[in-house]
Automatic annotation (TrEMBL):
It comes from the Bacteria. Its EC number is 2.3.1.-. Keywords: Acyltransferase, Transferase. It is an enzyme of class 2 (transferase). GO terms for molecular function: acyltransferase activity. The lineage of its organism: Bacteria, Pseudomonadati, Pseudomonadota, Gammaproteobacteria, Alteromonadales. This is GNAT family N-acetyltransferase. InterPro entries: Acyl_CoA_acyltransferase, GNAT_dom.
Length: 134
């Protein structure tokens, strides 16, 4: 057995690890495909000004990233993007959404969207895990 510490991104290795987890899960839960779900907004010039990105699998919407451009924050764009992404997740049969954020980022935003805090890692900044049941 040989161990390695890798200090750079290696998509082939990460893909192989994820594939191993998926095969294990399929043996227990049945086959299901992880399907990307991204909703974005662009301004009138085509510039990306916000988006929600994640995936759906096993009736879960796993949110990886939510971002809104500084000039557009506070306009309701983030709420609209989340609503559209969640509507699509529900259409796909999702029963729950999950997201994590840092205490310096947007925990209050997610709570206003109906998410509940389900865990906190007490580092500085704190990492906050949230969930929303549909």
């Amino acid at each position: 057995m040989k161990f390695e510490v890798i200090h750079e991104e290696n998509n082939a290795i990460v893909d192989a690890l994820v594939d191993g987890v998926r095969q294990f899960n399929a043996g227990l839960l049945g086959p299901e495909k992880s399907v990307p779900l991204t909703v974005i907004a662009r301004d009138e010039n085509g510039k990306l000004i916000g988006g929600v990105g994640g995936r759906t699998i096993y009736k879960n919407f796993l949110i990886n990233v939510v971002w809104v451009d500084d000039q557009t924050r506070g306009t309701g764009l983030g709420c609209k993007l989340m609503a559209l992404a969640e509507a699509e997740a529900k259409q796909r049969g999702c029963l729950v959404a999950q997201v994590d954020t840092l205490s310096i980022q947007a925990p209050v935003f997610y709570e206003k969207q109906g998410f509940e805090i389900i865990g906190i890692v007490t580092t500085n900044p704190q990492r906050i895990f949230l969930m929303k049941k549909y």
